[in-house]
Amino acid sequence: MSANTYSVSVVLLLTALGQPALAADDESQNETPEPPSCKFCPDNEGWSGWIEGGLGFQSDDSYHFGRYSGYEEEGFLGNVNGEFDYRDENGNFIEAVIDDLLIETRLLKIQGGRQGQYEVGFEYDQITNFREQSAYSPYRDQNGDGILELPAGWVPGLTTYNMPNLGSALVKTPLKTERDRTGANFTFYPSNKWEVSGYIRHEEKEGVKDVGATFGFDQTVILPVPFKYETDDFGLTLNYNNDKFQSRISYISSLFKNDQNVIGWQNPYENISSNTAFGQMAEAPENQFHQFSALLGYQLTTDTRVSARFARGLMKQNEDFQAYSINPGITLSSLPATSLDGKVNTTLASLQVASQPLPKLRLDASYTFSDRDNQTSINTYDYVVTDLATAGLRKNAPYSFEQQRLHLKAGYRLPSNMNLSLGLDDDKMDRTHTSVEQTDDKTLWVKLKVRPMDLLVTTLKYSISNRDASDFTPLSATDPLLNNPNGKYENNILMRAHNMADRSRDKLGFEIAYTPINELTIGLDLESIKDDYDNMIIGLQQAKGLIYTASISYAASETLVASMYYSYDKLSSDQSGSEKILPTDPENLWVAADSNVTSTLGVGMNWAAIEDELDVGAELTYSEFTGNIEYIGAVDLAELSSTLASISVHGVYTMSEEMSLRADYRYESYEESDWSKDGVVNTLPALLSLGTATQDYTASLVLVSLRYQF
Amino acid sequence: MSMFETIIRQRALCLALLVAMGAVSPQLYAADDDDDGDAVIMTAEQADEAVLRVLNAPSSDKGADSCLKCHDEDNEYPVMPLFKTRHATATDPRTPFANQQCETCHGPGGEHQKESKKGEEKAPILNFGKNVWTPAKAQNERCLSCHQNHERIEWKGSSHEFNEVACASCHRIHVTNDPMLDKKQQADVCYTCHVNKRAKFFQVSRHPVREGQMSCSDCHNAHAEDGDGIRVAATVREKCTSCHAEKRGPFLWEHQPAAEDCAVCHTPHGSNFPALLKKRPPQLCQQCHAQAGHPSVSYNGSVVPSQFLSVKGCLNCHSNTHGSNHPSGASSLR
Known about the structure:
The complex is a heterodimer. Chain A has a 26-stranded antiparallel beta barrel. Chain A has a 3-stranded mixed beta sheet with strand order 7-13-14, with no helix packed on it. Chain A is mostly beta strands. The radius of gyration of chain A is 31 Å and the shape is globular. Chain A has 2 helices and 34 strands. Chain A starts with a helix and ends with a strand. Chain B is mainly alpha-helical. Chain B has a domain at 249-316. Chain B is 27% helix and 2% strand. Chain B has 11 helices and 2 strands. Chain B has helices spanning 3-23, 44-55, 64-68, 102-106, 136-147, 159-162, 167-170, 183-191, 195-200, 236-243, 256-260; strands at residues 30-33, 39-42. Chain B has a two-stranded antiparallel sheet with strand order 1-2. Chain B is elongated.
């Protein structure tokens, strides 16, 4: 079904469903009883809100400090925030928000209309992602055409050590992304029961990203690639609800545009083959997604409700193919098509029943069917390895899958005010073009909530899962339809991808909330998970996770609230591999055991130090991470580590009913040790990196703001 | 007997022990603060009966004026900010104040408005929140009488509903701005129960939730999820690609897990590895790839630094891991 067909369907449906019901609703509105008059209800008509302007100073340049907050540059800064609200006696209103007006995370939003009849809104939103400040590269996109070139006079070398111009050619190319979203929305209420709403949104996502690019195995470079993506989203929704029946019918579309579908780069290395002066790879292709969906709910009886969901979507992509290679020295057959004409139909259908047949008994069931039907053609393509040489033929594998999920659960209120819940979940997958086509993952869980003593609530949840994988069929390296390739396999035949392998899982959850006195709450939340991949020879053998958080909060009075938490998070796993394609004994295996531990301590406090005059607050967080990867019988990797200390303090002094003064102080320090960066800065002979070093920064920010409230 | 059945039998004993532990517990159900600030304990049955008594009581004499005589700005439960919200817009026929005002939600207040005799407790009225006497089901029925639409159509049967979470456990009605509807405050509300998630957002790779650029509800539908992840979109991948549309495809050369479920390689809340990955490459990639040659090599400490291990690991060369549209991109190299 094409996008246009979807659109027409929705409009027709809106028209057909809307008209008769609107008339009926108008009649029912007349039956609404008049509310009593209210002389004590305050009059809140007119404008209200606040506006705040601030000046501040940031101590250091730091992309990481301001990664998402926008505070990334040393020096003086200003900011403006505000909220504005207007209402009149007829229900007309305007709501506006200004957030971070003077920095790159600004949000401007305005919504207005007549409540209960119609609303329109506009929004502009910026989101930054300052990723890496100290990135250096000899590459420039001089013509803005996506081709990254080296400066004139560049002398290639066999390795990065033999590139005489490298040092002088480096220019700073910070990595960052900025999203600018502009949108509009409307909602129209023809009656109490009907609602039509819609939105349009345009997003520009622009910046510089790091992309690995290679010639062969020994000539690699990390490119600073400028990019500019645009996405246009559109949605239209019709809602209808009455006492028993509710529905929502929607159409959404998302159109992704990228004018630059090529990343090209000049080879900085001395040619190991003729005609490899430039390489070329694909950028993200333009694509579209359209989806029609319906969500229905019906109150079957007082205690039983049925809901259903249906969604049908279409993903498509038809970007022009590039040539197999820009290397003129390679002779190839012509492409089987000029573009992919890729099409994937997606379907989701679910049915859910929630019932309470007895006051103490709860029974729920849901079934969900999800399908990804990839209708893209399978063709045979020549394969040119990194613009260097041909390596035979390849057929594409357009993956499809079908998923069926069943959830059954029951809850019973036992004597002594215990609540017992039991459930069975079944998750079946059926895939195409994979070595394991079917998996069936069954989970049985039980949850018990007990109050063993006054104001103590404990909850225990335990589940066991078992995933059965169907027979393994080794796949061809070149042809997804060829199940018996006679030795030319795509993978070691003893390897099982962990998401499609036999697995047993134990999961335990434990929660305590204890309130010995009204002012004090003590809590503990623990989750433990253990996965065993029972029949795995090569691949992920087992994985464990343990995370718990102990917390305490104390409300000493209405004016002083303090809280503290400590969180421990450990993830570990064992995996094996083999450097021989068919290991005949365990000695051929290598085993890596990784362990990653994060500990976080947080303290927070809010205090009305002088009632109605001075409020102060503080948040302190310290987080520490260590990661180890040990190799059995080989040299372990160096420890990964990082520490983050973050302090945020504020005080608000109320000078009058209208005016208040706010002071903010933020401090953050971070340092890390990382073997993937340590000692790598442009020094690997076969890897020309961006020279990004491990992070070690301290930055602080002081901001003083004056607020006017009206 | 299958292995699955064997495991179930083994665990049945543990469950029996747990039930036995609870069976000796004292009979307690709901806690509330009365006017003196002391805890009032009710059984579930007592609370249900109390709800019925409230709903069958007569209405107050003067609607909201009856309530506002006591519940002014100085009262323990101040309500005045409500009048700056949409709930109090009487010209909108859908709102409480276009109907029975306070009693639209709180139930008839004819008994509650009466002065209590000395030594007697005041007749209750429906209260909303986490630690109040009114059961979550009774609270939520009042809210759903108007709000059982949009994504809340699937509220009944969702995890929150099944676990008796009240709407007012998260939403605040008597304030000008409900923190749940504010991106900068919403996560703090969610963390009160989902405490283990808070620390995740202090890990080095994360979504911008701490800064309020994203909120939990950008990905999660708290009104419909049933233990299988995201319900804002039809599938997890569909949700992820609504912001990361460049990774949507379809591609000529697809990476199977990327086409199926982003969570095979990525973890959404926080990671100490780049790009929210569950592990670092090459170890992450070697969980599925063991082809003869460099993919199967043990990249241990003896080979650091190396172009196979350092910087972006496998992605130093295999950069189009989410899929490639280049005719020679079968191995994500182009």
